[in-house]
Amino acid sequence: MSEWLVLSIAMASACAVVLTITVINNRRLGDDDDPSETPDVIEYMTMMIGVVYAIVLGLAIAGVWEGRSAAQESVRQEAQALHEVSARSEVYPAEVRARIRSDVDAYVTYVVTTEWRHMADHGSLTGRGTELLDQVRRDVTDYVPKSDHEAQAYQPLVDQVAAADDARGARGQGAEATMPGVVWFGLIIGALVAVGLIFALQIRRTGRELLLAGLYSALIAFLLFLIWDFDAPFGRGLSATAGPFLDLFPDATR
């Protein structure tokens, strides 16, 4: 099911529940009910709880967005490091250079076509990807430079392989969900409380009040969906992409 369809259903469901309860609740009220009798303390509490929950939502969105940005940055660093390995191997003999570039291409192709889907489904890296990167490392470290020019390129190549390995590790750590279950519990309970307090203000069945109640509940549903979508940096619609790999290695998917 499309994630945008899930969002639409969640927002529509939130609106429907709130509006249905509002209509049913108003039918139970007598003609002598006066909404102006709502105690001031209830209005104050409703406002304070709304403000506090808005702050919590903002912090949660900032946290998952930062996690997504960090995941995308790790992908960029890994792709750039591998591109440097492929480019700087130009100083090596043709046979060695071809082997290094071939193994780099094999690793990138595997990451883009296979490991990416595995990260989305399981939240972890694969052993095969580690083996392919280890092969690139052996290609670089096992070669003994035969000239000063090759010797000067050797250590930078080793450093770039290490940088790619470090970025790969960061990518693996970022593949998991970042929001603990207890935080989700607080967000959901807070949403129920925030929406539930609408009825403490004794809203009526006027078009304006029903519209505001529906928009308020839909907004909370949308923000919760946004947090949920960002919480899996590699697994959902607004997730980090393999763009840096595809930009630097355009033949990776062939």
Automatic annotation (TrEMBL):
Stored InterPro entries: DUF4239
Keyword Membrane: yes
Transmembrane regions: 44-65, 181-204, 210-228
Keywords: Membrane, Transmembrane, Transmembrane helix
Superkingdom classification of source: Bacteria
Pfam hit, one: Bestrophin-like
UniProt name for this protein: Integral membrane protein
Species per Swiss-Prot/TrEMBL record: Streptomyces flavidovirens
High-level lineage: Bacteria, Bacillati, Actinomycetota, Actinomycetes, Kitasatosporales
